[in-house]
Amino acid sequence: xxxxxxxxxxxxxxxxxxxxxxxxxxxxxxxxxxxxxxxxxxxxxxxxxxxxxxxxxxxxxxxxxxxxxxxxxxxxxxxxxxxxxxxxxxxxxxxxxxxxxxxxxxxxxxxxxxxxxxxxxxxxxxxxxxxxxxxxxxxxxxxxxxxxxxxxxxxx
Length: 156
Prior knowledge:
Layout: H1 4-20, H2 26-37, E1 43-44, H3 45-52, H4 56-69, E2 72-75, E3 84-87, H5 91-116, H6 122-155
Antiparallel strand pairs: 1-3, 2-3
Helix pairs in contact: 1-2, 2-4, 5-6
C-alpha cells in the first residue's frame, strides 16, 4: 500500500483530472486539490511549484485565474515578504454562485435562439424551449438552495 503522502498526491492528480473535464486547466484542479489537503493550509508559490512539479509561471497564471473566480486567496503575514495562497473563505459558495450566473447566460442563449425561429416552427422551438425552461427554473431555484445552505451552516 502507498504511503499517505503518495495517496495525497494521487488525490491531487485525480482532482486535476476531474476539473479538467469541466474546462479548467489540470494545474488549476491540482492546485485546488493540494490547497484542500496541505498542511499548513497556506502555501508559497515555491511550495506549490515543488509539490505540483510545474513552473512558477504556471502557478502564477493559475493562481490569478483561481483568485478571479474566488476559489483561492492570496494572504501575507506580518514580517514575512512572501505571499501565500489558500482556499478562499466561502470558496465553494462563490464557485457555486458563478455557476448560478451561467444558468442565466444559458437561459438568455435559449431566448436568443427562440427569437430567431419562426413562431410556427414548433419542432425546432421545442428543443430551445426545453433548454429555456430548465435554465429559467435553475435561475430561480439555485439561489434559494444556496441561501438554505448558508442558513444551515450558521445553525451549526
